[in-house]
């Protein structure tokens, strides 16, 4: 086996995101399927409106949260596979030189789908542990008839088995695509295919080396830019939304949203930052040799991500406001005693302050990792 289990274990980020997605979607979809079974017992017009609102809520939550987290999981999987191939170019090149075909090498990538199974299975089991309290919360006031928790095999297949199979197949196919390189291109790290390039246009003010390196780092790691923005987006949207859940839903719902947001934000932020540092060790070494200070090294590699993070935070703020307004003004517009939702500036200030503190702490930690990079070890590689 070319890809070992310990390599798949590094995809813990996919497991965490898959767990969060399946946890939320399983609870809401299971509740939707269970209340659909008692539709005939509901006769009061007001109860029917409440029932339809619950159905709409379940559908919206599954589509929005499930879809968003699914896209993120796919991007993260493709990133990990590309990262694995980049780290093991020489070994893969030797295998191709010995006559192994792309599909034969890529077949071992199916093990990356195990991380999906671990996450989806954990999320599915966690959903059933929380369902008694969740059902009681959704039917608070006992407006609807008693709703019993039932096990639906279709949900298990769609949310646990199917994602595992799809992600395993996707890993194999993407591995085949990324392995379509000449053997020498894999064996020689810096060798790139000859292509016609447009002549470079002279710039009047190219800027300092630090600013140029910032832009170059962002352009060369577009996936990490997405992860950085997504981390800030999750933190912003989920933390601010959790403040509003106390009035719109319940303390339990707010705590669940807050926990999921923090887990997603910390996971993606840690992945992006550590990959940036580990992928630029040689650049850091060369900068030190040429006389650049530790502060300049940190600024060149990490400084460019700060605007991206704050832009993601702003988008998350707008997203949570629009989503809650849609839920209150459209989904629950006919339900009595639903409070009017207005933008919570206090929640924005608290969330922004906490985000700044956490982000700067992570940056400081990464700066410490950069300082510990040994120039001698890098030069001897």
Q: Can you count the helices? A: 16
Distance, first to last CA: 27 Å
Poorly predicted regions = 190-206
Structural class: mainly alpha
Q: What's the gyration radius in Å?
A: 25 Å
Order of helices and strands: HHHHHHHHHHHHHHHH
Mean pLDDT: 76
Describe this structure in words.
The chain is mostly helical. 76% of the residues lie in helices and 0% in strands. Helix 2 (12-36) runs parallel beside helix 6 (113-138) and helix 11 runs parallel beside helix 15. The chain starts with a helix and ends with a helix. Residues 190-206 have low confidence and may be disordered.
Q: What's the structural blueprint in terms of helices and strands?
A:
Layout: H1 5-9, H2 12-36, H3 45-87, H4 89-97, H5 102-106, H6 113-138, H7 153-178, H8 183-187, H9 209-220, H10 222-248, H11 251-278, H12 281-289, H13 294-302, H14 305-331, H15 345-372, H16 375-380
